[in-house]
Specification:
Elements lengths: L2 H4 L4 H14 L1 H14 L1 H22 L15 E5 L4 H8 L4 H10 L6 E5 H10 L3 H7 L1
Helix pairs in contact: 2-3, 4-6
Length: 140
Amino acid sequence: MGYKATGHKTPLQVREKVKAYASAHREQYRMASKRYYESHKAEAAQYSKRRNEALKKEALGGYGGVCACCSESRLEFLSLDHINGGGSKHRRALKASGTGNFYLWIKRENFPLGFRVLCHNCNFAIGKYHECPHTRLATS
């Protein structure tokens, strides 16, 4: 049986109703949300951590999932690099205060060009010295 046969609302209808209520009762809704968050901080932190980790995994996977320089594949060591620099400026323009927000933007934009996966060591070396020691070792 579908939603119509049972008389229940679809998830979209429920979401729209909640959105309308929240808009009409903005202050009450904000205070209720704040109270709920205060009493469920640990769960919210765990949820946020899991969500950000999943977003990071998906974003890195969209660009190959391994360091483009040294082939490091452990998620804890990987990050996204702006190939032409300007990462800080770009994140400020997006108002992406946390890495999860940046990875969400990457996902929503369908993994745009101009990014690559680098491990933190290679990313730092390229940012600081304009090249990674791995590239010097490979050409020696």
